[in-house]
Amino acid sequence: MLTKKEIRFCLDEIADMFPDAECELIHDNPFELVIAVLLSAQCTDALVNKVTKELFKKYKTPENYLAVSLEELQQDIRSIGLYRNKAKNIQKLCQVLLDQYDGEVPKSKDELVKLAGVGRKTANVVASVAFGEPAIAVDTHVERVSKRLGICRWKDSVIEVEETLMKKVPKDEWSVTHHRLIFFGRYHCKAKNPNCPECPLLEICREGKKRMKERDAI
């Protein structure tokens, strides 16, 4: 496990690499963000943005999504994985927004996770990006980078990774760290081909040093 000083070094180096990291899901309001994050499960942000470009022209409010049949909504998001379940969840979510929140997206994480299709990660993203609340959303990139570097343990669950990061990262840096870790994992420390040879964190990265040793042994 990394020391407090080493974690600080990692955060600073990643910040230098990706100073402008931010949410890449295109949206104009909290409602669109909720829909976009819901659609992004097991899907790339690039594909979601391609779909929502037309989707958000057709559907502006929760009422709009409920005014069409489930089959029509499914066709509108058909190119996205799990589109059938996602379409169902969108309509369920919209109904709850109208019934319980006057059509507005709630700001509380506890209320957000009660919405259909909204898990802990989605709630953290919406709370952070839409409402400016400190949060660390652990997606596949954040989890992979945290474990490779040794900030967290390999056996840690997603929730344990989140809790560990919340303890080891200053609260006022939670949200920006979340985005920077995503960018670091998405564009540098990739799942299959991490750029270890050019990584400024190589000397303290247990996974990177292991990979380089194995490469040199070939």
Structure commentary:
The mean pLDDT is 95. This protein has 218 residues and is mainly alpha-helical. The chain is elongated and about 60 Å long. It folds into two domains: 4-21 and 138-217, Endonuclease Iii, domain 2 (Orthogonal Bundle); 30-129, Endonuclease III, domain 1 (Orthogonal Bundle), CATH 1.10.340.30. The protein starts with a helix and ends with a helix. The chain is 60% helix and 0% strand. Helix 5 packs across helix 6 and helix 9 (140-149) packs across helix 11 (174-187). The protein has helices at residues 4-17, 30-39, 45-58, 62-66, 70-76, 83-101, 109-112, 120-129, 140-149, 158-168, 174-187, 206-217. The protein is built from twelve helices and no strands.
Essential attributes:
elongated; mainly alpha; 218 residues; 0% strand; Endonuclease Iii, domain 2; Endonuclease III, domain 1
Question: Quick summary of this structure?
Answer:
The chain is mainly alpha-helical and 218 residues long.
Q: Major β-sheet, in short? A: none
The residue ranges in which pLDDT falls below 50 over 5 or more consecutive positions are: none
CATH topology of the largest domain: Endonuclease III, domain 1
Quaternary state, please? single chain
CATH homologous superfamily designation of the largest domain = Hypothetical protein, domain 2
Overall pLDDT score? 95
CATH architecture of the largest domain: Orthogonal Bundle
Strand content: under 5%
Radius of gyration: 19 Å
CA-CA gap between termini = 28 Å
CATH class of the largest domain: Mainly Alpha
Helix content: 55-70%
* Helix-strand pattern: HHHHHHHHHHHH
- Globally, the shape reads elongated
